[in-house]
Amino acid sequence: MKQVEDLRVSPVERELLFCEWKRLKGIKYFVFDLDDTGCNTSIAFDQQKNICLSYLSSRLKVDGNKAEVSYRKFNDKSYEIHGVNPSRWSWVVEKTCNNLGSRNHEVIKTATEILMGIYEIPLQLFPETAGCFDFLNKTETNFGIITHANVEWTEKKYWDWLGLDKWLARNQIYIVDENGHKGPKQWLEGISFFGYKPREVMVAGDSPKSDIEPSQKIGVQERCLVRRNDRLWKVQEASVGEDTWLVKHIGELMNIGGELLRHQTVVR
Ligand SMILES: [Mg+2]
To answer: Quick one: 137 and 257 in the same domain?
Structure first.
């Protein structure tokens, strides 16, 4: 994959390079995924999953690892069947408890409530996100978000917790149906909703399966995989093209114009 190198130039030169890069590539719009691309969503999932598993192992008197293996199996399966609809948690918990030998309704209800707590934990933007969004505004780069999440949660998350109204209007957010998957059709619908063609946008997201692969399939030329760490949910694995950018955070996108300097060096 391609790396964005550090760009040691003045802020003004950085902005000029970025604008020239957009012009040469024909990029008119940036499209971001948000969860674990721009903000720390997996923290909420991990926290409630750990509380849920420790509750189940103590109430059902089973080994913690055994409970986790069972939970993972049904959590992966639930994503395939139910997408990211929060109603999937009661299914995951019921299947996990049954697998661990329990049909206790009270335990299933409490464990489900613990997982539903995911959507009550205020999230935060990653430290580099605000700087990147400010830079896009400064360079007159319009951008939007294509998200695959529950509508109610998205409302709370975007406007109340993350304050995205500083940069975005509601028509710059496209919500993919939580009951389905974020595939090529959904990416194409989202990009068209913003008024662009796939070749005119840069896509950045943390999921090879739900962000990079589908946008590649519909013809997005500039794609950026955000990988903050090596942890990746199994269901989100996919191979991505060698011509995909790889960054640790979206702040690196501000240096993408450095590609033009590399090219100049080669020409000389
Ligand atoms: Mg994501």
So the answer is: yes
Residue 29, beta-bridge partner list: 142, 201
Same domain assignment for residues 225 and 150: yes
Which candidate, 129, 141, 138, 133, places its Cα nearest to that of 12? 138
Could you tell me the distance, in angstroms and rounded to a whole number, from the CA of residue 207 to the centre of ligand 1?
A: 6
Q: What is the CATH number of the domain that holds 216?
A: 3.40.50.1000
pTM of this structure = 0.93
**pLDDT digits 0-9 by tens, 34-78:** 999 999 999 999 999 999 999 999 999 999 999 999 999 999 999
> What's the gap in Å between 253 CA and the centre of ligand 1?
17
- Could you tell me if 232 and 108 lie in one domain? no
Final residue in a domain of this structure, among 120, 142, 162: 120
Going from the C-alpha of 267 to that of each of 16, 152, 244, 257, the distances in angstroms are: 20, 52, 23, 16
